[in-house]
Amino acid sequence: MSDTIEGQTENAVDAREASLRQPTVFHLIAILPTWIAAFFLFALMVMTFFDVVLRSALNNPIESATELTRLFMAIVVFASLPMVSWKDNHIVVDLLDPIFSRRLAHLRAIVIDLVCGLALLWPAKRIWDLAERAREYGDVSEYLNFPQYLPGWFIAFFTLVTALVFLARGITRIVAPTRVPTK
Predict the structure, then answer these.
(1) Other CB atoms within 10 Å distance of the CB of residue 50
(2) Domain residues for 157?
């Protein structure tokens, strides 16, 4: 009898652990920007490799390599920001951490998250406005004739998402502090 109960308990635990490993829609939405950043980082690496090989071996570099490098770097950086912000993986200088008590450190973290979230709303709006101006003027890149407003929209969108992530993180610190990821 006890073997049956133990077996059922183990099966229930295994089923629960398996359900935790199954990606949910929210999990997929959360990791999508990370995969976008990884793809463009890989594309940047491949392009740089071929640019160096073509430049060295054939004296014929990829003409639009500088333009593509700027575009790919913007995509890598801004697509990564929401996840980096949520996981609190920013570079920090913690010289003053020893003078804060646990409670004050928690309050400081809440204030920093909320202020960063609010502060990022203005750049998101401003970048969107500049992208719209580029769209109205028909600005395109030099070599590829790529519309300049598209990267602007991308940067504005992910800056806004990062602002919302900081605000959500700050609110989560207040409502459910144990749910906030820490380093």
Answers:
(1) 13
(2) 2-179
DSSP string, the chain: -HHHHHHHHHHHHHHHHHHHHSPPHHHHHHHHHHHHHHHHHHHHHHHHHHHHHHHHHSS---TTHHHHHHHHHHHHHHHHHHHHHHTT-S----TTGGGS-HHHHHHHHHHHHHHHHHHHHHHHHHHHHHHHHHHHHT-B-TTT--BTHHHHHHHHHHHHHHHHHHHHHHHHHHH-GGGS---
| Single-letter code of the amino acid located at 92 | V
Structurally, how many domains does the chain consist of? 1
Q: Record the pTM.
A: 0.80
pLDDT in tens, 155-178: 999 999 999 999 999 999 999 888
Could you identify the residue written with the tokens 């769209």?
135
